[in-house]
Amino acid sequence: MIKTDILIIGAGPTGLFAVFEAGLLKLKCHLIDALPQAGGQCSEIYPKKPIYDIPGFPEVLAGDLVDNLMEQIKPFQPGFTLGERADTLEKLEDGSFIVTTNKGTKHHAPIVAIAGGLGSFEPRKPQLDNLAKFEDNGVAYIIRDPEVYRNKKVLIAGGGDSALDWSIFLAEVASEVTLVHRRNEFRGALDSVEKVQELKNLGKINLITPAEVIGLEGAKSLETVTVRKNGENEEEIKIPVDNFIPLFGLSPKLGPIADWGLEIEKNAIKVDNTLDYQTNIPGVYAIGDVNTYPGKLKLILCGFHEATLMCQSAYQRIFPDKKYVMKYTTVGGVTGFDGSKKEAPKAVVKSIT
């Protein structure tokens, strides 16, 4: 049994920042995430995508943001249960909770904070008759390790940021990259579109638009992809490939959390935003993109704000007889659980009482 002060479901940016805010209150955190690494979508889907709305960073790559957050929370030594999905929530007589994962790992905490982003994800798959045959045998929906595609012939389908970004990245890794999109226009960032066009002109990316994948062939593993080029000169092209990666986005689902007795509205968890982002179950909070309330904005920076207020409320629930005097972090620096300390600047700001 893993015991902690705040059990955080979801190790994306909002969940990671909650560790920092809890650490300032001397509260220990443990995080559960179905993904094999921390960072949520920022690590899993678009680590090289630039983000522009993080205060103090005119531009930061999603993967770098996660790295910075991990460095920021290091003094507070959070625990992680990765590669496991939170399945069941049990409320005990004393008001605390036991959360059990799909692999049977049990976690006990007085506070549960759901920071699962948009929930668990399932890839949107193309409608191809024999698609399942080639899953894990040439077909993948998420790129976890680009080195898998070293010196391989790769065909990517999609028109969003993920398809563009990975086409650009793999152009320097794979022996051949083909990008197929059903339209001539892309939905991704303009600079990515321009980079793909530049790589096409240099012969590093085969760009086929408007077109769609209509067939897969191979004995045991994938060998060829059939692409139908649409428009005035419609034709079918058989392209020899080692890997086919359809990047049509992910469908968010709350998964087992939807059965925990929480109040749900349009696949999001309703919370009280007038105070602390608590759900209809006392002691269970929802922060970040997973929650909903009047005026909700699904932005990372909003999740950071929600995490801060959630931790203040959690402290009061855990220690109802204590009064915490909040201070700016510039007053005394940040002291980790191991006694390590990052000193504050000499210019000290007065405390908040």
From TrEMBL:
Its EC number is 1.18.1.2. Binds 1 FAD per subunit. Keywords: FAD, Flavoprotein, NADP, Oxidoreductase. It catalyses: 2 reduced [2Fe-2S]-[ferredoxin] + NADP(+) + H(+) = 2 oxidized [2Fe-2S]-[ferredoxin] + NADPH. It comes from the Bacteria. It is an enzyme of class 1 (oxidoreductase). The keyword Hydrolase does not apply. This is Ferredoxin--NADP reductase.
